[in-house]
Amino acid sequence: MIDSISDSVILNNGIEMPWLGLGLMKIVNERKMIEAVNAAFESGYRSLDTASYYNNEREVGEAIKSSGMQREEIFITTKVWNDEQGYESTLSAFERSRKKLGLDYVDLYLVHWPVTGIFHETWKACEKLYHDGYIRAIGVSNFQIHHLKSLLSNCKVKPVINQVEYHPRLTQKELRHYCNQTDIQMAAWGPLMRGRLFENPTLTELSQKYEKTIAQIILRWDLQNEIVTIPKSEKANRIKSNAKIFDFEIESEDMVIIDGLNTGERTGPHPDLFV
């Protein structure tokens, strides 16, 4: 059982990543970023997730600096965007990200989307950065099974993680099974479905049963499914509330009920149609 915010998963290259992290998409104001990151660190979070596309890596770097946290205590993820992909472009994009963050290295670097015809070259650049010691782990985001199969057929370094949209309306069971088979950890972006599940009657009943918020129920469901989860919030009270998911366990029959909410509905684009 994952029973502490300090618990972490060992990725396939041996490094540890916290099960719970803070997503930082759409936070572009430096003051709000500092407030959010401080609230997260005070609540025990040690993992922050950003991307070049979020246009806030500099603000993330300032928040880390102002927090006083030691670099080795925190886990930082960023991503290479679609128009930055390709071998040389990715090397340049990473260096821009690293400098904006003000870091000597990044813990996890992800290929943000599987851009057809390019992501293999992007991955080769990630492998170089990994071997050169600028990144502790490399992974992908929004990859479907066929993308992963294509990548695994000729890569030298296996992705440690596949970060995808994942919530009770989109349980991605086939993708989960494939990732488990290939020792690629799945991670959830948009785990709270942008609030669209907060009035769901089934989750409302479970919220009352466990005396937890619907958000806490969903995030606990994630963890019990062994999915790294990175809920996004800039409000201190929600960040702190989302961290209070380690003092209870959802019963197996209720896990099945939540699984049954799956409809395949997405809040973001389908990877095969977006790029």
TrEMBL record:
Alphabetized UniProt keyword annotations: NADP, Oxidoreductase
Highest taxon above the source species: Bacteria
Family named by the database record: Belongs to the aldo/keto reductase family.
Official protein name in the record: Oxidoreductase
SUPFAM superfamilies in alphabetical order: NAD(P)-linked oxidoreductase
Active site: Y54
GO molecular function annotation: oxidoreductase activity, acting on the CH-OH group of donors, NAD or NADP as acceptor
Sites marked Lowers pKa of active site Tyr: K79
Domain annotation NADP-dependent oxidoreductase: ranges: 20-262
Sequence positions that bind substrate: H112
